[in-house]
Amino acid sequence: MTNLSLHLRDEAIQLFNAGLTAADPSNGIKQFLTYQSQQLQIKTLYNDTIQQRSEDWSKVHLIALGKAACKMAISAHKIIPPHLLSTDNIVITNYENIQAVSYLNIIGAGHPTPDKSGLYAARKIIEIAQKAQINELVLVLLSGGGSALAPCPASPISFIEKQSINNLLLASGANIQEINTVRKHFSALKGGQLIKHILPADVHTLILSDVIDNDLSTIASGPTVPDATTFLDVIEILKKYTLWEQLPKAVQFFCDQGITNPNYETLKPPLYPDYKNHLSIIGSNTMSINSIITLAKKYYYETHLYSSKLCGEAKEEAKKILFFAQKIISQGLTKPTVIIAGGETTVTLNGQGVGGRNQEMALAFTIAAENYRLAVSDWVFLSAGTDGRDGPTEAAGAIVDSFSFNRMVQSSIDPTTCLTNNDSNTALGRSNDLFIIGATGTNVADLQILILQPF
């Protein structure tokens, strides 16, 4: 690895950190939640206009759910005066992001596989929601990961069955919208159904978005957002990924019942027409991308946005990014250039290895760069999750360079075999390219940064 490679790697990390800073949920809460003139005030985006929501609520109940739940709840707790705050509160996050504070009831739960701690926490959410009275506010703080962290199976689906369905979906190659469509319909909480427990109290949801296009009904499976999908969509998705026949007969029967019985369905938009005025996005992948672009320009890089809606199979998207880079190079590369992307890809598991979508993308990019070459002096590619964890590994993703392929080969690793076996973690570990940062306390999906240094 040359001094230039080390320099480019350092700058890629700095750019990624700029994206993380933009996704800091504490800052987002402070921007959207204030207490002024003896009233709690909440900014909300409605009809493309920022408005201020403020009412004389007699009490505020906090429900925080997701990987950023602790940071969001701690920040909100500092803003809301003690006389308004209910002692009934709940904060549910993954075990890696737990912060111990005495004034909040923080529960760690399993992610990406739901566990019984999450089941208990989901029931506590419903309990707190049902206690809220008219003229009181339930303030829901929502971030990515909430779908798995608060499993609440719809009767008669068992918790074991819900776990099994979740695991099948995660390994299927289905995208997050498809996965959450299924999750919503097998839940008593998701797909707007938390609203049923909160009414007639008021509700407002502050959201840290981890999904493409900020689809509010997809983030944590939208517990306070009406859901337009149906059981017909669920069955179509399950059959598309050949999962239908793997389901227990009781679950198949539940889906069939859902088609004909509206009581089984999630909350539909007409039942809660004013919901858009009760939601605020405080951070998103797009905000992180914009922050990266700003810093890259400050560093005098030419910048290109490849996609702010990156999706699809991770290894295929890696090749597409490389081809995009080749096109830019062919047009004449005269100054250092950064190509940026953000979103959430998928991995279809065909092998028995260990990795995650970002590690798989980085390994696939390394192989593609070896096969197709990049006509530059040097390059560095970083792909990582803003939550600090990529798949069932300690790494957030990986950062590879023009020497990574050779480092793998020299350590007796066949990169292509590892990719075929979904064993990106092993290959990248051998080449010292794993990007390990620990739990970040935020989650706005993934970021990709490719730096090209011209000759």
Describe this structure in words.
This protein has 455 residues and is α/β, with parallel strands linked by helices. The protein folds into two domains: 3-18 and 286-453, 3-Layer(aba) Sandwich (glycerate kinase, domain 1); 24-152 and 187-229 and 266-283, 3-Layer(aba) Sandwich (Rossmann fold). The protein has helices spanning 3-22, 25-32, 69-79, 116-131, 146-149, 159-170, 176-185, 193-198, 231-240, 249-260, 285-298, 314-330, 357-372, 404-410, 415-420, 424-430; strands at residues 33-36, 39-46, 49-54, 60-65, 85-94, 106-109, 137-143, 202-208, 279-283, 302-310, 337-343, 378-385, 397-401, 434-435, 446-453. The strands form three sheets. The protein has a six-stranded parallel sheet, with helices on both faces. α7 (176-185) packs across α9, α9 runs antiparallel to α10 and α13 crosses α16. It is globular and about 65 Å long. The relative contact order is 0.14. The model has no long low-confidence stretch (mean pLDDT 94).
Radius of gyration: 23 Å
Distance between the termini: 17 Å
Number of domains: 2
- CATH architecture title of the largest domain: 3-Layer(aba) Sandwich
The beta-strand count equals 15
Briefly note the structural class of the backbone.
Answer: alpha/beta
